[in-house]
Here is the input.
Amino acid sequence: MTRLLLFFRLMVRPLFREPIRTATTVLAVALGVAVVIAIELAGDAAAGSFRSSVETLAGDSEIEVTATGGVPDDLVGKLATLPYPIRVRPRIEGFAVVTQTGESVPVIGLDLIAEAGDRMSRDWKLPDFADGSERGADLSSGVWVGRRLASKAGDQIKLQINDDTREYKVRGVLPSSAGDNAVLMDIAEAQQELSRTGRVDRILIRVPDQPSLEIWQQRLRQVLPDGVQVRPQGSGTEENRRMMAAFRWNLRILSYVALVVGAFLIYNTISVSVVRRRPEIGILRALGASRREVLAAFLCESILFGVVGALLALPLGRAMAVGAVNLLGTTVNSLYVSSQPGSINLNWRIIGLALMVGIGVAVLSAISPAREAAQVSPVEAMARGRREYILRVEKWRDLWIAVGLGIAGVAAAKIPAIDGKPLFGYLSAILFIGASALAMPALVEALLAAGTRVLTALLGVEALLASRSLKGSLRRTAVLVGALSTAVAMMTSVGIMVGSFRQTVVVWMNSQLPADIYLRPVGNPAIDRHPTISPDLADQIEKLPGVEAVDRFRSYDINYQNMPATLASAETETARYYHSSGFLSGKPDREVVAALRGGDNAIVSEPFANKHHVKAGDTLTLSLGERKVSFHVLDVFYDYASERGFVILDRDTMLKYLPDPAPTNLAVYLKPRANLAAVRREIERVSANRAVLIFSNRDIRAEAVRIFDQTFAITYALEAIAIIVAVMGVAGALLALVIDRRRELGLLRFLGAATAQIRKMILVEAGVLGLLANLAGLLLGFVLSLVLIYVINKQSFGWTIQFHWPVAVLLAALTIVYVATVLAGLYPARIATRLIPIEVVHEE
Amino acid sequence: MEMKPESRSSATLTAGMPVVSFQAVSKDYLADGQKVRALDNLSLGIEEGEFVALVGRSGCGKSTLLNLAGAMDFPTSGRVLLDGTPTSSLNDSGLTCIRREKVGFIFQSFQLLPTLSAIENVELPLLLAGSPTGRTAAREMLGWVELAGCEDRMPHQLSGGQMQRVAIARALVHSPRVLLADEPTGNLDTTSGDMILNLLRRIATEHKTTTLMATHSLEAAAMADTIVRLRDGRVEEVLRR
Here is the structure.
């Protein structure tokens, strides 16, 4: 109790005497932690919704039977007549667009008669066909919908399924346990509406507890064709989670950067606190406080920062998560799997994470200054005339350690991924950040020494005083530059990575989108949804004047090595090619694509090749319909459209195994000298009653770039927060610097300095800090961008990105940071000019 | 040396135009919400080249008087004239100008900027005033205080006496009309203190710089032309050589 009282008197009270500095430190921790939990919450919400719609409606089944292109529905009967006490539930699972809102919603086709009497069916108040009341009822054009889509039975709802739009009668509103936006219809109608005649998407099977699930799977496999997959129900959700893991990992790591910046600031705050309280520590030591008690006191102070920061971070993080969920939702939909964001759930795990991260970062950053406090000798600390205690800076030792860390960083970057995670890539980035932090005192001193003369010549005596003051408090300056430069480096590296990626994608699109007009069904594009276009529309378009050829592109969701991927086919005969090669081998496109025709050949995308360790010449075995088919991999092509990966076949090959002729996209090639606008009008005319979107080549590129920019919007948001934390730290630290140097500032007034000169001096200090941070940050950012592009991205996603300097973006961003840093000096400068010289010069 | 006492009412020390003149000056401070009178209706005039020692107990108003004389503060009532200019009539930039041109300060704890070398400290007032000839004047001044060769030393590389001589050089580098010294020997040993006092004496004699020194030391006060004894913010006694 007495210790607590002492802690309050000696450590907590002083914090209240400097509310601004205390507040900025707490806020830095809070912002850092908030970003971490916001990304965690948003990731949970975005990923958690994988199972929400479709899986909620799956009920309590244990096994699912699937096949690429659908399971033939005669297998439903085969399974149902097996001599086992199992329950067989066929499903159609697709998506529809609510025409009124444009929202994509899941459409589930259930065998209502087979489900009758089931608990789930009763819970959802579906008609009970078993009791005879609905016997003979017309099930067509009737749907049951979630609460969000209709308020009562009898309403009408207009849905677009594939490229067809129809009005449906709402037969009932589902309870919230069935999801609030699902559309349920009878399986027969769903098969017709979703063009799945003769097939179902999944067969869910409920089996008894005994024997084991594995044995049940084996029994079922024995009676099913080779290409049909039997697996535990919900495996798809798990696959999606696994697939998303790399994305979430990278985002998580990115979210920790703001925390690292915050750590620099806590380190700075505790260091300043130790320097200021040296005499106090000396007195306490003389009065009997042990070294351990001093150490504990400062560590407890940091814990206090951590706890308060983490508690503040909870509401802040939740609010940030709302924005992040929307940004993440776009990325998840365009790159991974279609999903509706789930709810943001601030649970105990997140609260625990916030406290752990907040306290952890606070204690880790306080260890060094707290140890320094514990080393204070009472005699030295209390000695008069030693007010200007300058912290020890062992810059040469630190520089050598930095060189060592840098070498270790290079070595770590060369180690391959572990379990698909670029752990050594992250380590490499951390080592480079550490190296930069340790090299900072030497770098700052060298730059200040070199630049003081120039600065003084340009800006006068104020610049001399400013740079000398920064050099005089080298450790503090180095920590500040370290914090700000880490934020700048993050901004720079992500900026370079995203800029390079964008440029690579733009160049790639220029060579990979040769058609003049593209068509796809209406609705938000999502990588795992493959709504189709009526085959006759493609035929109609092909016959239009001015049209040379139509490429019918068809894609399916497949499962390869327990990971989702996309299987697609293209009409290789119609495709046009550019001179540049789209293949890793460098072979001309025409040559590779010609080889694709005839025979079971395939080409795979680079992310697919990396994820599944497939290379040209390998054999790939895929489950197609009821069969397992082996394909010869001809080559690997560059692709930036999907992280899950593509396997591409010739259309004829695809139709051999999956005979559904409906394409998912059309690429229309015009005849030379054909009028694009006129042909487009003609296409619009023939597709007037179809829900399809028509894009010109330019439109589709612009759309791709828009999706790309949306995808990376979250990284910009994370960068902005790290910069805010750092700039806030600069403001707080400059304020501390002003307070610590108030006697010096007062003295300058005695020596004839005008208030404008004092203000200028502080602003020059802020400007020099900004300049140093920008320089160091640019350097570190360049190194980190190499790690991001060539190690972390490559190991996580498998994309080849060409390095590119996004000069305009970087210049703009660095200017903003610089201006923000100078502006951060305004308040401390104002405080400096308001000091009363007589009071501060004479205070001892 | 013999000092002649004068009456308290005749606190104006000169018959001619004084360089620093206090006319019925009072100065009040607020300390914890209570008004404290630091100077009480004080009148005093100091002539060019005169070396004046201000003595008295702690809190008698010595430092307040120096601050008013250096245009660092305004009187609550009365007037302070610095080289004929009433300080109360000046705004912040006017006060800054008058300090730059006419006043030099020396402090008990030297108050050198720790991040600047000796010569940089000395040239600082000139640089702040925008003078381009700072370095030459500073070098000359360091020579005058017998610190030639120590130009590039940092403050922590100098002894106490050397630091105070740098401070004196800094206070004189812009040739002020008035030199204000607050306990200049308070932190020095006897030998260094004597050296500083001799310098101050020479400044008044050779440079004709009016010097106003607050001190507790009778030995230091004995070097002055005039000793002004303060008590409770008033002139208690004036002793002239």
Observations:
- The interface with chain B takes residues 385, 388, 460-461, 464-465, 468-469, 471-472, 743-744, 747-755, 757, 837-838, 841-842, 844 of chain A (CB under 8 Å).
- The radius of gyration of chain A is 33 Å.
- Chain A is about 60% helix and 15% strand.
- Residues 443-514+698-844 of chain A form one domain.
